Amino acid sequence: MSYSRLNASAATLTKNRTAGSVSPFSGMCSTCVEGCVGMCEIGKSAYRGHETIYPQPFGIITTASEKDYPIDYSHFSIMGTAVGAVGIEADSDKAIFPAAKIETKVGRGDGIKLKMPFVIPGIGSTQVAKDNWEGLAVGAALTGTILTIGENVCGMDEKSQIESGKVKSTVDLKNRIKMFQDWQRDGYGAIVVQANVEDTRLGVQEYVINELGVEVVEVKWGQGAKDIGGEVKIKSLEKAQMLKKRGYVVLPDPESPSVIEAFKKKAFTEFERHSRVGMVEFESFMKRVEELRAAGAKHITLKTGAYRPADLARAVKFASEAKIDYLTVDGAGGGTGMSPWRMMNEWGVPLVELHSLTHEYCRRLDEKGKYVPDLAFAGGFTMEDQIIKGLALGAPYTKLIGMARSPIAAVMVGKTIGKRIHEEKLPVYVERFGTDVEDIFVTASELKEELGEETFKKVPPAALGLYTYYHRLQQGMQQLMCGSRKFALEYLSRNDLCALTRESAEVSGIDYVMDLDREEVDKILDS
Questions:
Q1: Structure letter (DSSP) for residue 12
Q2: What pLDDT sits at residue 126?
Q3: HSE (CB half, 13 Å, CA atoms) of 420?
Q4: Mean pLDDT in runs of 10 for the chain (527 residues)?
Q5: How many CA atoms lie within 13 A of 189 on its CB side?
Q6: What is the reported pTM?
Q7: Which residues of 128-157 are buried (b: 16+ CB within 10 A; e: fewer)?
Q8: Nearest CA to 246 among 291, 208, 197?
Q9: 497-499 and 76-78 as β-strands: parallel, antiparallel, unpaired?
Q10: Domains of the chain by residue range
Q11: Residue 168: which of 122, 140, 208 has the closest Cα?
């Protein structure tokens, strides 16, 4: 069985000439003939080279791996029961699914209170993030969830004022923060500002804490989509040159005369901007956390990617020693920006394995009486069943589920519907629900009553897309929790799952379905 697809993908705009006859181990057509113009990834690489490394077209897509991993969350099932209720009176008139509570709190002290256990973990300087930011910010604020501003936003902003290597003012970052703050309600949710190597050098987090009222900041080690720094494409020679002067790695060299000439002749149309990889050390990590606390950060988080187990152990241990508020663990396979396509498919520890290891490491520290940070699991989560499984697999430590591609998808759909309403060009499968926002978005009337008519008019359709999607997830979670007779997130446990294969049971430590409840079954039958 092959877990991977090679040499042809919609992500790289490539395909095999002989789609029905492909070598499974190389991905090449079984018969590669002279005279083919190069439709596959090898062929396209023969004339566009490094451009073919990345998913295309940049700026209007998000991407995720096509790899069929040996184990994923579909290899577990959520267990229901016909007995009792936890967190509510065992009364059929009271133990109804709308009574299941999905509000939560993460972090130390008073923590960050949330209406729903969701975090968007690190949407940064990519064009797709910038173009959809209004919907993400307003939608996340209205739903009382966490939104993370990812790396390089300040450094990418041509209007940022940087003096002596430190940021003094910024337009884009300020606007992104303000969009969330303006719509935040009753203290629920949070806007988080992340920093990589370049951001830290620029003093971005100190700036947003002191000047823009940000209370939560995140140290970034990496993400699940790739094991190198953030990347974007730049269509402007002048901006590419500016970014090189600001210390970024820009390819090809925008200051080279031959490169400039080739760009002007349109031999290529985009530069690549790359970030540096960080160098994790215990002392420097602890020092950085103390610097952020001294600067006034109320909550500090850490995001790590799908690195090898020893690096995951470092993340858990360092987070424990520094007593950070929550640790985001992002499994391999997904991305929202410009991660290299083959890297996205072929590097890193997949979700179930990574999250199972995280639970094991946290349990070991917990048994020693050490501080264990709250966890956020991320990587390919989209629907309520996966969310419940992620929270249960990591229980009692996992308090949040990180999602990025699906919230962006919901925002893009909402934005598109808004445009089609304005243009009076709604497709028939949408128009059958109505021709205005209040008819089409099922949550609109309730939100209008809650906000008032004048405020509701200011809610962009893109934000309604995210708001409505999240509310679907909320009701779906409540139904699954009710079936398991767990009426608050804090009661979810690993016993609410069973593994459907011996392999998934071995990896996760979750009971295999045929072994589940064996002792209780014996007591029932033998009594």
A1: G
A2: 85
A3: 18
A4: 87 92 94 95 95 90 91 97 97 98 96 98 88 97 97 93 94 97 98 95 97 97 90 94 94 97 95 92 98 98 97 98 98 83 93 98 98 97 98 98 96 97 96 96 97 97 98 98 98 98 98 97 96
A5: 27
A6: 0.95
A7: bbbbbbbbbbbbbbbbbbbbbbbbbbbbbb
A8: 197
A9: antiparallel
A10: 1-53, 59-228+286-527, 231-274
A11: 208
Report the C-alpha gap between 299 and 132 in whole angstroms. 26
Separation of alpha carbons 81 and 66, rounded Å: 35
pLDDT of 335 reads: 75
Q: Dihedral sign, CA of 110, 385, 402, 440? A: negative
Residue 404: partners with Cβ closer than 8 Å, 6 or more residues away? 62, 120, 121, 122, 123, 334, 336, 378
The DSSP string of 241-279 is: HHHHHTT-EEES-TT-HHHHHHHHTTS---EEEEPPPP-
Q: In what order do the strands lie in the sheet with 271-274?
A: 231-234, 271-274, 249-251
Tokens describing residue 54: 């990345």
Q: Is 193 helix (H, G, I), strand (E, B) or coil?
A: strand
Q: What angle do CA 19, 21, 26 make, to 5 degrees?
A: 95
The torsion angles phi and psi of 314, rounded to 5 degrees, stand at: -60, -45
Report d(CA 432, CA 428) in Å as an integer: 6
CB atoms within 10 A of CB 439: 13
Two tokens, residue 462: 């893109």
Q: Mention every residue, 6+ apart, whose C-beta is less than 8 A from residue 154.
A: 160, 167, 170, 172, 173, 199, 202, 204, 207
Residue 500, pLDDT score = 98
Positive or negative, the CA dihedral 118, 102, 216, 109 is: negative
Cα-based distances in Å from 102 to 62, 116, 387: 28, 6, 11
Let me know: does 36 contact 46? Beta carbons within 8 Å. no
β-pair partners for 512: 499
d(CA 48, CA 269): 12
- At 295 the three-state DSSP class reads helix
Q: Which CATH architecture has domain 59-228+286-527?
A: Alpha-Beta Barrel (3.20)
Angle of the 133-142 helix axis to the 405-423 helix axis, nearest 10 = 110
CA 224, CA 331: separation in Å to the nearest integer? 5
- Those residues whose C-beta lies under 8 Å from the C-beta of residue 151, and which sit 6 or more positions away, are 122, 124, 125, 194, 195, 196, 198, 199, 220, 229, 230, 275
Q: Which residues pair with 146 in a beta bridge?
A: 119, 190
Residue with tokens 């040159």: 241
* Alpha-carbon torsion (474, 478, 481, 487), positive or negative: positive
